[in-house]
Design a protein that fits this description.
- The N and C termini lie far apart (about 55 Å).
- The chain is of the alpha/beta class and about 400 residues long.
- The protein is globular.
- Helix 1 (about 10-15) runs antiparallel to helix 9 and helix 9 (about 250-280) packs across helix 12.
- The protein is built from twelve helices and eleven strands.
- The strands form two sheets. Strands 1-7-6-5-4-2-3 form a seven-stranded mixed β-sheet, sandwiched between helices. A four-stranded antiparallel β-sheet has the order 8-9-11-10, covered by helices on one side.
- Bound molecules: pyridoxal-5'-phosphate.
């Protein structure tokens, strides 16, 4: 539960203190890392009632250590939520959250622009095998979502901005028309994190984040989180996490909580650097468009400005058409942009994206190659020099 003493403080203050409990840890500022499988109980009665709601203490290492609970309290405080559950990865958090609220015969609406594995693995494999019908909807549908809701629709899943192409969803319009229908709304909030967007305050029921990204922030641990606004939703997700046997490792929870201390300053710098680089990219002849909601001419800018308090360091560009070899020449020669999955660490990255393969509700109309950039904490002038040299390689190979 959110620490009462944190209510009312602003978020950077919360981030500096959330989840800490030095009074009960010998005065040590940071929560200790508890490695645990067995947890013993003083009486038979306490042992026999251990694995039951309200799940608010250590029962068995698998279902949570004090290190995990401290991390969960900190995430909850950032979101102004009720309680959170930590997972071994972002994808584990997505799979568990969705599975908690669906059953055979249900209909689920999933945004067309979700993270690839949410589409292919969770929707295409797990839900399909469970006999759940998945319908992908246009991320820009807004309150038109109500026309897609059926009697058996149980979940509407959002991700804003969308993966690869960064369309901003009108979250309040969607949650507004679904209010009172019993449909559970859930969102992948990884791009903004709780620092730049608070979905619970915009009517979302279930907030999912790949804490692997900005929460951990240093490319060295895998974690996911699910934050809920009510005890009933918490019980449901935690119960399902226990049924699947999900376990968030104590060292990784420690790193996640440590990451939260600096997520504010890091994200502000990611934003500053990304804006500078994105603005430079917009003026390049090789660039058809930059997909980044913080840019004033981005189609999602107005909604982003209304609902978000900032933008992180991840965006994509569509380039003028060229063979794949030109993209490879550009990416292979970068000094400062690594080629690799994930993002949200301190370092810059660049990978190709293929939205044409991942969209059905609103087919992708771009014709040139798409490259997704993560803008890290390096000096943006050095990043721009690297990008300029990359365009020379791109042009030479076209
Ligand atoms: C938007 C988004 N959500 C979820 C995930 C999955 O997180 P993880 O890699 O921790 O499983 C990713 C990973 O790239 C992502 O980009």
């Amino acid at each position: 539960m959110i620490d009462e003493k944190q209510r009312g403080y602003r978020q950077n203050t919360i981030l500096a203190h959330a989840g800490l409990d030095p009074e009960n840890n010998h005065g040590v500022v940071n929560p200790p890392v508890y490695h645990a499988s067995t947890i013993t109980f003083p009486t038979l009665e306490e042992f026999e009632t251990r694995d039951k709601p309200p799940y608010d203490g250590p029962q068995y290492g698998r279902s949570g250590t004090p290190t995990q609970f401290a991390f969960e309290r900190a995430v909850t405080a950032l979101h102004g939520g009720h309680r959170s559950v930590a997972f071994p990865s972002g994808l584990a958090a997505i799979a568990c959250a969705v599975n908690t609220f669906v059953k055979n015969g249900d209909h689920v609406l999933v945004a067309d622009t979700v993270y690839g594995p949410t589409r292919s693995r969770v929707s295409g494999t797990i839900l399909a095998r469970a006999g759940v019908e998945v319908e992908f909807y246009d991320a820009l549908i807004g309150d038109g979502i109500k026309d897609l809701v059926r009697d058996n629709t149980t979940v509407v899943y959002l991700e804003s901005p969308g993966s690869l192409t960064f369309e901003v969803q009108d979250v309040p319009a969607i949650t507004g028309v679904l209010k009172g229908t019993g449909v559970v709304t859930m969102i992948d909030n990884t791009w903004a994190s709780g620092y730049f967007f608070k979905p619970l305050a915009h009517g979302i029921d279930v907030v999912i984040e790949a804490a692997t990204k900005y929460t951990v922030g240093h490319s060295d641990a895998m974690l996911g989180t699910v934050t809920l606004g009510t005890e009933a939703h918490y019980q449901a997700v935690k119960g399902m996490a226990n049924s699947f046997g999900y376990h968030a490792a104590p060292d990784d929870c420690y790193l996640g909580q440590r990451g939260l201390r600096t997520i504010g300053v890091r994200l502000e710098r990611h934003q500053q650097n990304a804006l500078e680089v994105a603005t430079w990219l917009q003026d390049r002849d090789e660039v058809v468009r930059v997909m980044y909601p913080a840019l004033p001419d981005d189609p999602g800018h107005e909604i982003w400005k209304r609902d978000f308090t900032g933008a992180s360091g991840l965006f994509s560009v569509e380039l003028v058409d060229a063979p794949k070899a030109a993209v490879a020449a550009m990416l292979d020669g970068y000094d400062l942009f690594g080629i690799g999955a994930s993002w949200g660490g301190y370092e810059s990255l660049a990978i190709p994206g293929y939205p044409g393969k991942l969209r059905t509700a609103r087919p992708w109309t771009g014709t040139g190659p798409v490259v997704r950039y993560h803008i890290g904490l390096e000096d943006p002038a050095d990043l721009i020099d690297n990008l300029a040299a990359g365009f020379e390689r791109y042009n030479a190979a076209r």
